[in-house]
Write a sequence for this structure.
């Protein structure tokens, strides 16, 4: 039963992933990526990590992909997407891809150390280990947790500074200037 | 019970698809989305190994990856908006402002 679920979810995930790369319209790509990420969240549930699945849906589908869709709709990039793939000489990229795929297949099939680690798979425990997860996160990994929050803050400030236009600054300056002159 | 190798194969397939998007597409938005796909495939690997080894650190690292990805996407989309405002195109080949 679990295996059937896995096959279904992974088939949809791979199909949606292909659609991300193949689709002509960026909005179709974004929606396909949303579908793919939801399938991956379901796979996390199969792996006994329901908390991570919820985080995945909240952060990726709820925040990141909505941000993507906002940018796509705000900037009117439809005409940019007419040409789909790189026009000239995608040969180096293709060669790199073939080498990458072959290497991954070879490693997955041949590596003895990997096969020593991988058994037939563990059963998923009935009680999800969220309590242990939080203890580990807030005790042993407290410093990385705080550093991650600082990184998020810096990214927030950076995004605001980058996306603010110079004209907005000029308008604000002009609006300030007459008020000072009137006084 | 699902063999752990299945998860690794799925992650490898998704990683190669994402790499194809990064290397072959010419729209910056699609390249960013393909990067998301590659990051997710790596996260599947981490969680699968954490499940097989019964170690929660895989999930911890996955949570950190998701947080850092959110920050990365915010900055990347900010750069993209700034590029479009300065009348640059969205094509990867033509973004040579930094003479790359």
């Amino acid at each position: 039963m679990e295996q059937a679920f896995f096959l279904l979810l992974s088939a949809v995930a791979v199909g949606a992933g292909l659609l991300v790369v193949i689709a002509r319209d960026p909005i179709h790509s974004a929606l396909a990526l949303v579908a793919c990420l939801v399938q991956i969240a379901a796979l996390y549930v199969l792996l006994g990590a329901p908390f991570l699945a919820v985080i995945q849906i909240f952060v990726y589908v709820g925040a990141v992909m909505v941000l993507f869709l906002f940018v796509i709709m705000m900037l009117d990039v439809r005409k940019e997407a007419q040409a789909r793939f790189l026009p000239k000489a995608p040969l180096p990229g293709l060669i790199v891809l073939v080498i990458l795929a072959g290497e991954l297949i070879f490693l997955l099939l041949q590596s003895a150390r990997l096969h020593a680690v991988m058994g037939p798979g563990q059963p998923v425990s009935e009680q999800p280990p969220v309590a242990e997860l939080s203890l580990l996160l807030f005790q042993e990994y407290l410093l990385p947790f705080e550093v991650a929050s600082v990184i998020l803050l810096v990214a927030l400030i950076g995004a605001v500074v980058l996306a603010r236009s110079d004209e907005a600054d000029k308008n604000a300056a002009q609006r300030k200037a007459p008020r000072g002159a009137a006084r | 019970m699902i063999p752990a190798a299945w998860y690794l194969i799925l992650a490898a397939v998704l990683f190669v698809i994402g790499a194809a998007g990064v290397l072959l597409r010419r729209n910056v938005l699609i390249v960013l989305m393909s990067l998301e796909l590659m990051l997710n495939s790596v996260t599947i690997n981490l969680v699968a190994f954490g499940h097989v080894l019964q170690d929660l650190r895989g999930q911890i690292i996955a949570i950190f990856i998701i947080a850092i990805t959110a920050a990365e996407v915010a900055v990347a989309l900010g750069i993209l908006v700034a590029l479009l405002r300065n009348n640059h195109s969205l094509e990867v080949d033509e973004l040579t402002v930094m003479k790359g």
